[in-house]
């Protein structure tokens, strides 16, 4: 048997046995926010809406369409007919980050109204807020 064939057989045996591959679960040391399933679903829906808006903004920026950037960003601003509702149970710092994200969308809309300069920087700031929240918090369903 050729050396290369022997090597392939040996590697295949190790892979099948699983002795050379190990996995580990990373420790998740984010701050837990205990919520009902309904609360979690509502906040996750808001977060998905943020992502859809960011995607629409990036596509509009690629087309040089600052009017659409402004419209999409402004639609994600604070309020818009929604009360705090279930969010009142969330930690103050979490709520402040959420509000900060809505405000960052308005600031991005204002930059887009002035032209394209500063829009990418504002989008970066907005995304830093999203990343900061996801690095800091995790939802845990109340039992």
UniProtKB/TrEMBL annotation:
GO BP, one annotated term: electron transport chain
Q: Where is the signal peptide?
A: 1-24
Record keyword Oxidoreductase present: no
Task: Report which superkingdom the organism of origin falls in.
Answer: Bacteria
Q: Which GO terms describe its molecular function?
A: electron transfer activity; heme binding; iron ion binding
Keyword line = Signal
Query: Under which name does UniProt file this protein?
Result: Cytochrome C
């Amino acid at each position: 048997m050729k050396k290369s064939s022997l090597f392939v057989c040996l590697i295949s045996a190790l892979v099948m046995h699983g002795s050379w591959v190990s996995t580990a679960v990373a420790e998740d040391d984010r701050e837990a926010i205990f919520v009902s399933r309904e609360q979690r679903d509502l906040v996750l829906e808001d977060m998905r809406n943020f992502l859809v808006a960011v995607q629409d903004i990036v596509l509009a920026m690629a087309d040089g369409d600052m009017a659409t950037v402004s419209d999409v960003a402004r639609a994600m601003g604070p309020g818009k007919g929604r009360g705090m509702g279930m969010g009142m149970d969330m930690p103050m710092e979490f709520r402040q980050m959420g509000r900060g994200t809505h405000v960052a969308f308005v600031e991005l809309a204002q930059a887009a109204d002035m032209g394209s300069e500063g829009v990418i920087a504002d989008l970066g700031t907005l995304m830093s807020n999203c990343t900061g929240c996801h690095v800091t918090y995790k939802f845990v369903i109340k039992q």
